[in-house]
């Protein structure tokens, strides 16, 4: 008996490994855009889920940013239903402007996925991000210069979200769709140079592959895995250090903070409020520092004090 195509088998194996970790029985949702990655994920989950005692549904988010998006969403609902997924829903969202078009669409999308997951009581939401998406994310983080956590890319598991395909490249998902008789939708935004990720996909990564040789995307994804392990360890260290440095009044002991490695101290201060770092490492007798979120920080008697930022709040006098 002939088995599935190698690409289909690869996607199924990746999905099975993730579904086996869920506390079934129950419902799992696949976030499906109609693209190759999420379509390959959806049909693989529909195949593997029942074998593990799980029901598999799907949700597609209509951002309303392109003509005909509602009709495409409804057609995708019909396709996924015919492929054995259920329940399948299309959710229309209003995309704002905060943070730029990509960030605004992402914010609206995840809010919709969270709401739908709560509505149907799903155990988890599967996302179709691949190794190529991971490589793009790492390059974008590198360009921003935003530190190890950003370079760590996307986690395979984060809260209710699971990314089974991070170890597979985009060519595999396209091949799987072809073998399954699917015709994925090619989102024109993915090729629009107005978007940073589209430029990385069309120009930056191919240039790196030509210049440095094949395997750059896989190397970037491995780098993300290594940095994520480092970042997780440092975050754990910082959590313990925060507890050790905090007294009963919620103040941070400067002597404890100063004794920490810089990478850990920075994390402790960011957790409280990143801008408070100036009161530890660059203190020159300045008064209260106003921080985001309505928090004010002061240094007094070798302690950093965090509290509500109120105009009428008493502020300790700075040290001489």
Description:
The protein is of the alpha/beta class. It folds into 2 domains: 6-219, HUPs (Rossmann fold); 246-320, Uridine Diphospho-n-acetylenolpyruvylglucosamine Reductase, domain 3 (2-Layer Sandwich). 49% of the residues lie in helices and 14% in strands. The chain has helices spanning 6-19, 36-48, 69-82, 101-120, 131-144, 148-151, 170-179, 196-212, 216-245, 254-259, 262-273, 278-281, and strands spanning 26-31, 54-62, 88-92, 124-126, 157-158, 161-162, 252-253, 289-291, 295-300, 303-308. The strands form 2 sheets. The chain has a 6-stranded mixed beta sheet, sandwiched between helices. It has a 4-stranded antiparallel beta sheet with strand order 7-10-9-8. Helix 1 (6-19) crosses helix 7 (170-179). Mean pLDDT is 86; it is low at 311-320.
